[in-house]
Amino acid sequence: MGYIIDILTNIPNVILFNTKHIETQKVSNNFKKWRELINSRDMVLVNLYTFQAITFIIFQGVCIYFLLNTESDLRSATPGDFVFFFSISYSIYLSLLGFTRTIADYSESIGTVSEALSIIYSSKEIQDAEDAKELKVNKGAIAFEGVKFHYKSSTPLFRDKSIEIEPGEKVGLVGYSGSGKSTFVNLILRLHEVTEGAILIDGQDIQDVTQDSLRQNIAMIPQDPSLFHRSLMENIRYGKVHATDEEVVKAAKKAHAHEFIIKLHEGYDSLVGERGVKLSGGQRQRIAIARAILKDVPILKDVPILILDEATSQLDSVTENLIQESLLDLMKNKTTIVIAHRLSTLLHMDRILVFDKGKIVEDGTHKDLLKKGGTYKKLWDAQVGGFLGDEHFTGKNTT
To answer: Mind listing the pLDDT tens digit for each residue in 244-271?
Structure first.
């Protein structure tokens, strides 16, 4: 079943790469293995049923023999004795058959439960300290102090990394794929634990605070948002579970999602499908933006830290320009970290950190980094020049 679900969720790939026959054959092979297991189990049941039937026939024959040939001092067997015997023995036989079937169902269920429990009770890699406290964020300053980190069975990505992000500062992260930008953000969210060193938020080590309080103070818009198979109203409200319908609609309007939502047959009550498959990538991203905007609606205070991971990568230029205003408004008075491959979205950042193989090789504003002529300049020229070599350009400097 897991294999079939995997194919169904990748139907576009099966169609595009014309692999229907290959996948059909793989399903047939898996079905054949499953059928062999079922047949093996059923043969055990058949043998048990046969054994029970034979023993029951022998048992009845012995009992009938004694009923016919045994007489007590008081009376001999009556028709009522035979009726009583057959009724009781037949009930016992049916109970045995049902018990045998229950054993088969039990053996199947125990395997399912065992697999589920092995996941539920698996030890968590990241756990709160016994004396963990609530994170209290007043300013939103972030500091890496001698951080060292590497994934399991891999070379260290960060070595003695130290960097400070001032309260309310807007910082862009750029670099080649695999340079450590997403890892930098995931460490702040404590999705991974640092190997050495510490990450501080307003002077508090994030390993000394609860994970819930840490993430309650951070709003994030991921690159590829995954939605629940629920209504649009429920998916947006996930940012603030006690939000009113009016607050949800207001957030959707700021994210420019309201326009396409009201055109749907059921509006905000429309189901989005598994992981949001009924929506386009741009629509899913706007729902994620609306969710982050809703999380920022004051309950007791605004969320002090905002992380944008390619938040507008799946939007067209017109929609992106419309949403930029809402995002800039969302960034006000917040420490903001923006991961972007589209460098034009970082022009208004206070700082831009350029990553290369886990190191921050450049740090400065857009103009300063262009003057340095380093990695950032190469990335900028590649985007502005359409990835063509210098020999193809004869016009003005596009910077």
So the answer is: 899 999 989 888 889 889 998 899 999 9
Give yes or no for a contact between 9 and 274, defined as CB atoms under 8 angstroms apart: yes
Cα dist from 268 to 221, 237, 255, whole Å: 20, 11, 14
Q: What is the pLDDT of residues 151-182, one digit of tens each?
A: 876 677 888 888 999 998 999 999 888 888 88
Looking at residues 270-278, what average pLDDT do you find? 84
Domains 129-217+304-399 and 226-303 in one fold: yes
Q: Are 278 and 194 in contact (CB under 8 A)?
A: no
| Lowest mean pLDDT segment, chosen from 55-69, 270-284, 322-336 | 322-336
Is the CATH number 3.40.50.300 carried by domain 226-303? yes
Nearest 5°: phi and psi at 178?
85, 10
Compute and round to an integer the Cα radius of gyration of the chain.
Answer: 33
- The CATH architecture one would assign to domain 129-217+304-399 is 3-Layer(aba) Sandwich (3.40)
Spans of all domains in the chain: 2-120, 129-217+304-399, 226-303
Q: Would you say 182 and 136 are in contact if contact means Cβ atoms under 8 Å apart?
A: no
Residue 392, pLDDT above cutoff 50: no
* List of E strands, the chain: 142-149, 158-165, 170-175, 196-201, 204-205, 218-221, 305-309, 335-339, 351-356, 359-364
Q: What are phi and psi of 204, to 5 degrees?
A: -105, 125
**271-276 contacts, C-beta under 8 A, 24 or more apart:** 271/229, 271/230, 271/231, 272/227, 272/228, 272/229, 272/230, 272/231, 272/232, 272/235, 273/229, 274/9, 274/229, 275/9, 275/226, 275/227, 275/229, 276/225, 276/226, 276/227, 276/235
